[in-house]
Amino acid sequence: MGNGPSLTTFLEKNTAAAAGKHVFAVNFFCNTEYFEKIKPSFYVLLDPNIFSTPLKTALKDNVEELIERFKKISWEMYLFVPYKFKKSLFTQQLNNKNIKIVPFNSTPVQGYSFLENWLFKRNLGMPRPQTVINAAIFLALNMEFKVIHLFGVEQSWLKYLSINDDNSISVGLSHFYKDSDKTGENRTLSEFLTSQATVFKSHMRLQRYSERNEQLILNHTSGSYIDAYKRTNQFL
């Protein structure tokens, strides 16, 4: 599950059904009322800012709340973090026997397809993880889930792109659990668009990897900008 705004509608109608599945959650899903109801089996963090010391002011409250909630988890959950953050202050604070920390190799791999596939299968790298959703899908593929269902993955930042009179750019990031944030002010338009292209190229590579391994990725998110995966309106 991503954290796009459509996730609210999905969870309001399907919380009980989702709670019985192998659910991947990401970022600050933990800080919502649905975390205890869904009890995700897997949780993926990627953003270096979550592990930074000291924390950035904009993230400080969310990260501190996430840590406190993780400490109280009463079910077994696998927490995936980039290998370089395995021994970070963040992970050291998670003193909970129910959390199994699993480091993963977030090294972006690009080259000949046969070499990429060889490295992917051995977890020696992945398609460039421009977003945590890219990383979570790859991890699910390598855990050999035959069908992967995507919810709340709009990734529609381009819809909210604006350019101000001083040539700075602004992008509204909407999440199902909060009002939109503004980001992008320190990047040029070309830099932002390049990063967006990377996101969607990564999804295309993940789709080819899934096909090679005879796995299926289904996108249930209405209005999603991801064009790599088969779309469906039916839930499981």
State the distance separating the first and last CA atoms.
14 Å
User: What percentage of residues falls in helices of 4 or more residues?
Assistant: 25-40%
Q: Which structural class best describes the helix and strand composition? A: alpha/beta
Number of helices: 8
**How many runs of DSSP E, i.e. beta strands?**
10
DSSP strand (E) fraction? 15-25%
Give the low-pLDDT segments: none
What does this structure look like?
With about 240 residues, this protein is of the alpha/beta class. It has one domain (about 5-150, about 195-230). The chain is about 35% helix and about 20% strand. The chain has 8 helices and 10 strands. The strands form 3 sheets. The protein has a 4-stranded parallel β-sheet, with helices on one face. Strand 7 and strand 8 (about 180-185) form a beta hairpin. Helix 7 (about 130-140) packs parallel to helix 8 (about 190-210). The longest helix is centred in the C-terminal third of the chain and has 24 residues, at about 190-210. The mean pLDDT is about 90.
Task: Please name the defining characteristics of this protein.
10 strands; alpha/beta; 236 residues
